[in-house]
Design brief:
It comes from Thermasporomyces composti. It contains 11 helices and no strands. With about 250 residues, it is mainly α. The longest helix has about 35 residues.
């Protein structure tokens, strides 16, 4: 089987044309990136709002866990049956597929953004209010920067799940690396199926490494270290100037 796999991967015919590996990888990434962006648009503002205000906390445990429990393939088939007569052409398959991936990606992003805001040390938040900042300014200038490590963790987890699951798009006739699995199964071409599974795994690892590198560039090392340690500063700030307290916390994050 290993020899057949290597033979399939080294065949130039499998790396050219609309059915070639590069084209399928591009389709797979297209579905994945679109789903991640849509999920982030939904989950990040919601998670930040819940973390900042404390309202709707039950959504984190309740809704997020409920979405995780939904069977992806079953949900995809139901969505296609519901929308195929309402959307023209390929949109009847594309929209349900992306929607299912969005549902899959929302829970980790929602949890990450919420946990990131809630992990901000209370003294930093109090110092910001003591300086006269409004609630919105505290969220944007203090809580959001401090939430970046956990927010990125949620995005990375969501992207990993999307890339691994986007193969279901091929089940309803779309492209992506799932075509190698579906088409290979149809003709019992097991080397092609094995190659498809291997390519999905490699793509997921590469995307994870790319996002990890992006996180290192965007998130200050101090914030990453603080998030890993889960540190909570508890010293009394009563007699110190609030400006110094806030600046000290932000400097440690650089």
């Amino acid at each position: 089987m290993i020899g057949a796999l290597l033979s399939w991967l080294t065949d130039p015919a499998h790396w050219a044309g609309s059915d070639g590996v590069p084209h399928r990888v591009a389709e797979h990434l297209g579905y994945s990136v679109l789903a991640l962006l849509l999920a982030a648009v939904i989950a990040v503002p919601l998670g930040l709002f819940i973390g900042h205000t404390g309202r709707g906390t039950f959504l984190i445990a309740g809704l997020a866990n409920a979405l995780r429990a939904l069977p992806t393939l079953g949900l995809l088939i139901l969505a296609v049956l519901a929308l195929i007569s309402r959307l023209p052409g390929e949109l009847g398959f594309l929209v349900p597929s992306i929607a299912v991936l969005v549902v899959l990606a929302v829970p980790p992003i929602l949890s990450g953004s919420y946990a990131g805001v809630r992990s901000v040390p209370p003294e930093a938040r109090d110092a910001a209010f003591g300086m006269g900042m409004t609630g919105r300014e505290v969220l944007v200038k203090v809580e959001m920067p401090c939430a970046l490590p956990l927010l990125f963790s949620g995005l990375r987890s969501a992207m990993l799940q999307i890339v691994s699951t986007a193969t279901v798009a091929a089940y309803v006739g779309l492209g992506g690396l799932g075509r190698l699995l579906i088409d290979g199964l149809a003709v019992r071409d097991y080397p092609q199926m094995l190659a498809g599974a291997l390519l999905v795994a490699v793509l997921a690892v590469l995307v994870e490494l790319l996002l990890a590198g992006l996180q290192r560039l965007v998130v200050p090392r101090g914030l990453i270290a603080a998030a890993r340690r889960g540190e909570r500063r508890t010293r009394d700030v009563g007699g110190e100037d609030v400006q110094d307290q806030l600046e000290d916390h932000l400097v440690r994050a650089r």
